[in-house]
Design goal:
transferase activity, UDP-glycosyltransferase, seven-stranded parallel sheet, 40% helix, 467 residues, transferase, single chain, Rossmann fold, alpha/beta, six-stranded parallel sheet
């Protein structure tokens, strides 16, 4: 027990944050240490139904100029990153503006105008200063301030640095002298200019990420950044939720005589032709089964992809593909209103434990499976041409976060559909050397021991509060 109880307001802007901070050991550690946690909930999910204390954010509304300046800031920032590094990769993070309809057309015009006049380090500094000022003029900011005065937490902790909706609550906390903290929630975020909020302290996955944060955002001081690791992978180490193979197979209607691989789907933006990859893998497995193997393919779609784009492939290869849906709930139209249920944490851990490998396009699932000593196969060809003819290489592997790989041998590269069957057969014959390389990569991008991330976050919070 510590000297006094900490009251922590955890700002939950989306489903990923919910998974990281409500469904891991983070909450249990808080209770064990005698602290009080209130989830400041900006999702449509009712956290009280799961036994958590929550304060709802009611109808948050940004200043009308914030969205325009935020989009301009992102473009200017990426341009500045490119100039600082003389690296063209940052241009690939910029997506075209939507101009359909007069409202989008006007918005795109205003963003382009702001970029034209403010495209410099000086302009970037002005944008970064202006956005919080605008948010402090909103009714949303005033409402946040009222809630904070009422609850008087010791610290407001934002679970995602890329939530523009979190600016007003954090600014309100700062105005009242309340400590603020922020978690950088994904391994690829910082080079993409996604630091939408500023806080007194930042928690990052690794020393590698800390150096990135200080490089891209020179206004952040080294003593503001604490390396904690991410709670994201903690459930894999929780033996209480790991099932026996028999139990997992029975629960998901799998055949005990079959060895399954996992195909992990990507979102539509990252992998628009993803169903063709699923088809190619299913075709290779079907071929291997004619050669004496007994294989199946579990398909786990991207949790925020509710499209029917895979249906035809699943139907055509129903002798091979078994879909196991992520246990997420769709409560709205936007990606951040699709929220995980606690059961999905268990499902993913057991999926990694009881399948032979994971196959996908450039996802961090490589680390989920490396924890269970399972290899990852990355699709390394594309169907970007109209004829749907495979061409080697995918642009996502040029992104900055892939440069953290200690070696190219961290995954098995599938450079052509014809490589798939051979690669799968080889990994089934003997333990694959890429697993140890993948674990080295995992240790580089996430502080180890990885199952103590929540503990390190709480240690840092207690240091900030000085208890």
């Amino acid at each position: 027990m510590h000297n006094r109880k900490v009251k922590l307001f955890i700002l939950i802007p989306d489903g990923v944050s919910l998974r990281n901070f409500a469904y891991t050991s983070f909450y249990k550690i808080a209770i064990d240490r005698g602290h009080e946690v209130v989830f400041w909930n900006n999702t449509p999910f009712d956290l009280e139904a799961f036994g958590f204390s929550q304060e709802r954010i009611i109808k948050p509304k940004l200043h009308w100029l914030t969205t325009i300046l935020k989009s301009a800031r992102l473009r200017v920032e990426l341009d500045c990153f490119g100039k600082r590094t003389q690296d063209p990769v940052y241009k690939s993070y910029v997506f075209p503006l939507s101009r359909s309809g007069w409202k989008n057309g006007l918005k795109a015009f205003l963003i382009s105008l702001a970029v034209f006049f403010l495209n410099s380090e000086k302009g970037l500094a002005w944008l970064r200063k202006m956005i919080p000022i605008l948010e402090q003029r909103t009714a949303y900011y005033k409402a946040c301030k009222t809630i904070l005065k009422q609850h008087q937490p010791d610290l407001v902790y934002c679970c995602s640095q890329r939530s523009v909706m979190a600016i007003a609550p954090l600014q309100a906390a700062k105005s009242l002298g309340i400590h603020t903290g922020c978690f950088v929630y994904s391994w690829d975020n910082l080079p993409k200019a996604t630091l939408d909020v500023t806080a007194d302290y930042y928690h990052v996955w690794s020393n590698h990420m800390k150096l990135e944060l200080l490089f891209y955002y020179p206004f952040v001081e080294s003593n503001q950044v604490v390396v904690t690791g991410t709670p994201q992978f903690e459930p894999h180490y929780n033996t209480d939720i790991l099932q026996t193979k028999e139990m997992f197979y029975q629960e998901n209607n799998l055949n005990l005589g079959v060895t399954y691989l996992c195909y992990s789907g990507d979102d539509v933006t990252t992998s628009p032709k993803d169903p063709l990859y699923l088809r190619d893998v299913a075709k290779a497995i079907r071929y291997l089964n004619t050669k004496g193997h007994t294989l199946g393919l579990i398909f786990r779609r991207c949790p925020v992809d509710f499209t029917n784009r895979y249906d035809a492939v699943i139907e055509a290869y129903n002798d091979v593909i078994v879909p196991i849906q992520p246990i997420w709930k769709k409560l709205g139209g936007a990606w951040d209103t699709i929220l995980p249920l606690p059961e999905d944490v268990t499902l993913l851990s057991n999926l990694a434990l009881h399948t032979a490998a994971v196959i996908n396009l450039g996802s961090s699932m490589v680390f989920d499976f490396a924890i269970h000593q399972k290899p990852c196969l990355y699709m390394n060809y594309n169907y970007f041409n109209d004829a749907n003819v495979p061409e080697q290489g995918v642009y996502v592997y040029d992104y900055v976060h892939f440069r953290s790989k200690p070696t190219d041998a961290v995954v098995i590269w599938l450079n052509h559909p014809n490589d798939i069957a051979t690669s799968i057969a080889a990994l089934l014959e003997h333990p694959h050397p890429t697993v140890s390389a993948a674990n080295l990569w995992y240790e580089k991008i996430n502080e180890h021991p990885a199952n103590f991330a929540s503990t390190r976050i709480w240690d840092s919070i207690e240091t900030i509060i000085k208890i």
